[in-house]
Design goal:
2,3-Dihydroxybiphenyl 1,2-Dioxygenase, domain 1, globular, 9-stranded mixed sheet, 348 residues
């Protein structure tokens, strides 16, 4: 018998807004009482593929104060179909910081490609998690002591003229695999109340994951209108501080934050200038460039039907059942958004 090839099919053009309208019509006709009319219920975690799991866990736990809560090794046809990678064997570690989670995955087989060394902050494959810190100076010292790779020239304080972002301090750096990360400190009048509670901890939790998008309206049609996330805030950032934060000369960004019912927010970074960011390259889940945001849904079959109607790019063939629930869910779908960012919709 000839084996089914599990590598992803060639990429189809990203769906324009008008094609997503059909998904919304379908969604309105499907039974969604379990999710109260929302296709998604929460952002669970952000996952990253790593080259060496032990090294990655050591970095996140010793440098950034994450706590490892579980580790599992998995293989088999169900995982192959979900991830779109034939013959895989994965080690997966789940880590917690505050009330938020990340997952680190090492593919023991087959090994994927490393992150391209020329990745830029305005490329559409760019994605980071924003870690809230109690004290920016102390956090930056910790990172310097551990010789992290700088992606910003140093911590930046956004100017007070920017009503929505003024006073926020931020710094971009990279983990040992090259995944971009951000530490962020809010002034007293900004950010969620939980980030301002008295504590001795230096690294507090994950506020959001940020993704570069080519067109905010197209991404809103996908994340807000189809998936059901709510717009929580908007800002237009530019100036020397923003340029040095992103390390992109002339950077001018339209930033839109979308909030799920629970879990980290998803933040759009649309570069109004410069417009020379490169589209996301074709990747597979075992490539170290791969990140995926896991979002819970009340009904994976309903989610898959709506995503297909919206012409989303599927990595998995559809809903894949995980009867053992080793990764914390029993049904999953892996798709890509209009710019190629991976989303894993899962049903417990």
């Amino acid at each position: 018998m000839r084996r089914q090839r599990l590598a992803p099919a060639p990429l189809s053009p990203r769906p324009p807004v008008r094609l997503l309208t059909a998904a919304l019509i379908l969604l309105a006709s499907l039974p969604l009482n379990a999710s109260e009319g929302r296709l998604t219920t929460a952002v669970d975690s952000v996952g990253m593929t790593v080259a060496d799991l032990d090294r990655a866990v050591a970095f996140y736990s010793k440098v950034l104060d994450f706590e490892k809560v579980s580790e599992v090794e998995v293989a088999g046809g169900d995982y192959e179909r979900l991830e779109g990678v034939f013959g895989l064997r994965m080690r997966v570690a789940r880590l917690k910081l505050g009330g938020e989670f990340i997952e680190l995955t090492e593919f023991l087989a087959p090994r994927g490609r490393p992150i391209p060394p020329d990745l830029r902050s305005n490329d559409r494959s760019f994605q980071h998690i924003a870690i809230i810190v109690r004290d920016m100076d102390a956090a930056y010292r910790r990172l310097r002591e551990n010789r992290v790779a700088h992606l910003s020239s140093g911590p930046q304080r956004l100017p007070e003229w920017n009503k929505n972002a003024g006073g926020i301090q931020a710094f971009y750096f990279a983990d040992p695999d090259g995944h971009p990360l951000e530490i962020l400190s809010f002034p007293p009048e900004k950010g969620a109340a939980k980030w301002h509670r008295p504590t001795d901890r230096l690294f507090l939790g994950i506020d959001h994951t940020a993704i570069v998008v080519s067109d905010t309206e197209k991404s809103l049609a996908f994340y807000r209108d189809l998936l059901g996330l709510s717009v929580a805030g908007e800002s237009e950032n530019y100036g020397s501080e923003q340029e040095h934060l992103n390390n992109v000369f002339g950077a001018r960004l339209r930033i839109t934050s979308l909030r799920p019912s629970s879990g980290p927010s998803i933040e759009f970074l649309e570069y109004l200038a410069p417009r020379d960011g490169r589209p996301a390259p074709e990747t597979r889940a075992n490539d170290v460039l791969h990140r995926q945001t896991r979002i819970f849904t009340a009904d994976a079959a309903v989610a898959a039907a709506a995503l297909r109607s919206g012409r989303a790019e599927f990595v998995s063939p559809g809903v894949v059942e995980e009867p053992r629930g080793e990764l914390g869910f029993h049904k999953g779908i892996l798709v890509r958004d209009p710019d190629g960012h991976a989303l894993e919709l899962t049903e417990k």
